[in-house]
Amino acid sequence: METPLLQRHCPRNILVFRALQLGDMLCAVPALRALRAACGDARISLVGLPWMRAFAARYPRYLDDFIPFPGFPGLPEQTPDIAAIPGFLAELQARRFDLAIQLHGDGRLSNPLVALFDAGRNAGFSPGEAAAAEGAFLPYPAQGHELRRLLALTDFLGAPRQGEHLEYPLLAAEKEELARSGLAAGLEAGGYLCLHPGARSAARRWPAGCFAAVGNALQAATGLPLVITGSEAEAGLAAEVQRGLQTPARNAAAPISAGALAALLAGARLVVCNDTGVAHLCAALRLPSVTLFRASAPERWAALDRDLHRPVWAPPGHHADDGLAEVLREARALLAKPPSAGWR
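^ thats the sequence. predicted structure below, dont judge the formating
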C-alpha cells in the first residue's frame, strides 16, 4: 500500500479550495483541523467566497491566509466576476503553492479550475472512479455525512483525524456588536427560545405558521420569551411568524454579522430551525436544537450528536400536520434535559 501523500512529504505552502456557504464551511472545520495537525509548519491558505474572509479569520490555528474567489463559469455559488478571474489566477500562480487541495465537491467542475492554480501538486476528490495521473485523488463518496466525506479525504492524504466536533469561537467584537444592536437587551442566558424560520432556499423552509404553532406551544409550556432570528432580508418572514404568535416575541432578523447572530443564539435554551447555516452553528456551539429537513438529506447534513440536536424529516405531504407533533415531541424532550452548565 502506497504511503499517503502528506506522510511522504508535507508541503510548506498549501492552498485549500472550498467556496461554499456557512453550513458547508463549518462541516469542513474537522478536515482543516486534521490538515493543520499533519502539517504544523505549513502556511495554509483558503480560497473561498468573499464572505468567508471573516470565517477564515475565526480559525487562526488552522488557516494562515484567505484569498477571495471571484467565481467561475459553471459554479453556481456566486455570479462570476469575469473581469476579475485573470488577476485572481495570476495571483495564485505567482504564489507557487506546493499543494492545492480541492475540498469543494466531486471535482467535475472544480478540478479543472484548481488545475489552473498551477500548484506543484493537486489533490482532492474525483468524480466516480476517475483517477488522475498527477496528484492524489479520492473517488467522491456517494454516501455518508458531509463532515465524514471531507475527513475521508484528509484520511486518504495522510492527515489523521483530530475529532469530528465542529467549532465556532465567539469573538469579543461580535458580543459587543450584539450588545450595541440591542437585540439581546433584557434576555438572560438560557432564558429564551429561538425560532429561525429562514433558509437560503425556499424549498428548505418549514411554513411560518408551523414555526408560530411551535412557538405558541413551547412558550405556554415554559413561560420563556420567544426570539425570532434571521438575516435582514428575512425580517418579513420573521414578522409573518410573529403575527401567528399568541404572545409578544422579539423580531431579531436584523443587519448583524453571522458572529453576532451566533452570540445571540448561544444564550438560547433551545433553537428550532430549518436545515441551514444556523443548524450547524447550533452543533458548533452545542446548543440544543430541533432541525427541520424539508428538501435535504438528514443523513448527510444533520448534526452528528443526535442527543443534543434532533432532526425531523418533514418534506411537504409527509406528515398530515407537517411534522408539528414530532417537532414538539423532540423540543419537549430537549427542554426536559438539565440546562447547559454554561448558563448556570
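DSSP finds 13 helices and twelve strands in the chain.
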